[in-house]
């Protein structure tokens, strides 16, 4: 074992680590993105492919990040530098950490704006703004919100302040306290809403939609969407899990904790689907409506149900809490980096990095109104940042991280960190980390860069 100490303290226990990584993993990806992409990609068969991707690509990369993080015990940039030098005398791996730190800031810049919608909807549902109106009026509430830059500006600012306030307090007093309160609350809210959906929603129809594995509905494209989403939802590919792993005490199990996170994240995505689809079906709405599923269709459905105002409010509190514990994970790598290398206090680091992300987020704020017509590359500023981070930087980072753990690190080192012997469990992980995960990620990467389409074009 290495004897390096973390400069930011350690998680109090293995359980808090699982709670924190689960908190980072469970977010807008699970509750906003998963239902709408499952809805738009035909339901059950998509869910099946996503589950396979999580198991064979997500889990080994998650384990790789945790073990690299705990070995280096620094921010992702310094960790990749240290471990790369130790294991193979290679210094350039620090750029993988650097790309991750930047990707986290880019993702947070738009994540905070969408999370801001969720905070706004907590208030809108609570003061009855969405009850007793026509479908058109409820839809207009959302369209008016995004059309007004001062409103988006305000909610985005509020959400960034919430994130900075937690991260500035440090690992034990900030991050750990937040997940200790928010994660149990999230679970209680989710179960309450599940019971509500069972009693008042079209529960059977929702279940059938999610779990009828109709493989005819599956296209090559939805397989790739499922792969990409597995990445985003598990928070892997950008060193966030590595940063959290740096605070993991010795003598804890990398395999068990990673498996627990993967199972928790997946279960919560499925439970969120079991809440959302029955409610959407109860009002006879289309599950394939896309990005607006949560802010257009769901409020309409809640608006027409008994107790809809109350349970609608609970729903958006749930979404806000989930986004909050994720935003903390998105900013932590950059904050840890600043504390370690810029010789500033954690509070100064959190406010500075948070300020930069906030500023960058204004690009997304304006993408829905004043700059809505400025389109280039993949669309608006918001769509470009999302595309760059999610479809380029995450797959690239994930590919390099699994290559690093599988090929660059010595067998002895990874075996020592994983501490599961050298039998079939260890060999299974290594096979996945060396071959299966990189191949899978390469596939997503070729797809998102348009290479596959281009090759297909050559064949046609
Ligand atoms: N997993 C988060 C979600 O599903 C989003 C996310 C992607 C993330 N990468 C991350 C969160 C890194 C924290 C850290 O919403």
Characterise the protein shown here.
The chain has 460 residues and is mainly α. Helices cover 78% and strands 0% of the residues. It is built from 19 helices and no strands. Helix 2 (28-40) packs across helix 12 (254-282), helix 3 runs parallel beside helix 10 (220-233) and helix 9 packs across helix 12. The mean pLDDT is 91. Tryptophan binds next to helix 1, helix 2, helix 5, helix 10 and helix 14.
Topology, element by element:
Elements: H1 14-25, H2 28-40, H3 44-72, H4 76-88, H5 94-126, H6 135-147, H7 149-167, H8 171-200, H9 203-211, H10 220-233, H11 240-245, H12 254-282, H13 293-303, H14 308-341, H15 346-367, H16 381-408, H17 411-418, H18 424-448, H19 451-459
The chain binds tryptophan.
Pick out the low-confidence regions. none
SS content category: mainly alpha
Number of extended strands: 0
Count of separate DSSP helical elements: 19
Strand content: under 5%
Quick one: overall form? globular
Could you tell me how far the N terminus lies from the C terminus, measured between alpha carbons in angstroms? 55 Å
Mean pLDDT: 91
H/E series, N to C? HHHHHHHHHHHHHHHHHHH
Q: Give the % helix.
A: over 70%
- Rg, Cα atoms, Å: 21 Å
What does the oligomeric state look like here?
single chain
What compounds sit in this structure?
tryptophan
Largest sheet: none
């Amino acid at each position: 074992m290495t004897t390096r100490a973390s400069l930011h303290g350690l998680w109090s226990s293995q359980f808090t680590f699982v709670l924190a990584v689960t908190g980072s993993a469970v977010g807008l990806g699970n509750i906003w993105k998963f239902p709408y992409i499952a809805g738009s990609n035909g339901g059950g068969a998509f869910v099946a492919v996503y589950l396979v991707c999580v198991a064979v690509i997500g889990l080994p990369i998650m384990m790789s990040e945790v073990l690299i993080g705990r070995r280096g015990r620094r921010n992702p940039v310094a960790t990749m530098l240290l471990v790369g030098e130790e294991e193979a005398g290679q210094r350039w791996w620090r750029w993988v950490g650097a790309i991750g730190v930047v990707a986290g800031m880019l993702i947070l810049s738009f994540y905070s704006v969408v999370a801001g919608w969720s905070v706004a909807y907590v208030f809108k549902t609570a003061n009855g703004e969405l009850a007793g109106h026509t479908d058109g009026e409820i839809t207009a509430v959302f369209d008016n919100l995004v059309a007004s830059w001062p409103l988006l500006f305000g909610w985005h600012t509020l959400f960034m302040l919430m994130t900075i306030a937690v991260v500035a307090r440090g690992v034990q007093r900030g991050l750990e306290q937040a997940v200790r309160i928010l994660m149990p609350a999230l679970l209680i809210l989710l179960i309450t809403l599940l019971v509500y959906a069972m009693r008042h929603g079209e529960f059977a129809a929702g279940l059938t939609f999610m779990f009828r594995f109709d493989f005819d509905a599956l296209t090559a494209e939805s397989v790739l969407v499922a792969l990409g989403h597995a990445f985003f939802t598990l928070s892997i590919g950008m060193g966030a899990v590595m940063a959290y792993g740096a605070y993991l005490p010795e003598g804890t199990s990398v395999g068990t904790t990673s498996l627990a996170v993967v199972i928790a994240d997946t279960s919560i995505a499925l439970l969120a689907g079991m809440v959302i689809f029955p409610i959407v079906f109860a009002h006879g709405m289309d599950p394939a409506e896309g990005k607006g599923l949560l802010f257009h269709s769901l409020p309409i459905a809640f608006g027409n149900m008994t107790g809809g105002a109350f349970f609608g409010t609970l729903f958006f509190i749930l979404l806000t809490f989930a986004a909050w514990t994720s935003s903390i994970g998105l900013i932590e790598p950059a904050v840890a980096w600043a504390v370690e290398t810029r010789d500033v206090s954690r509070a100064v680091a959190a406010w500075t990095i948070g300020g930069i992300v906030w500023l960058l987020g204004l690009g997304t704020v304006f993408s829905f109104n004043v700059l809505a017509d400025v389109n280039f590359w993949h669309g608006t500023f918001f769509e470009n940042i999302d595309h760059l981070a999610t479809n380029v930087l995450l797959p690239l980072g994930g590919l390099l991280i699994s290559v690093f753990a599988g090929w660059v690190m010595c067998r002895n080192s990874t075996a020592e960190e994983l501490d599961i012997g050298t039998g079939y469990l260890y060999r299974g992980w290594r096979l996945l980390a060396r071959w299966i995960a990189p191949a899978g990620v390469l596939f997503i990467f070729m797809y998102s860069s348009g290479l596959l389409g281009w090759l297909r074009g050559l064949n046609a």
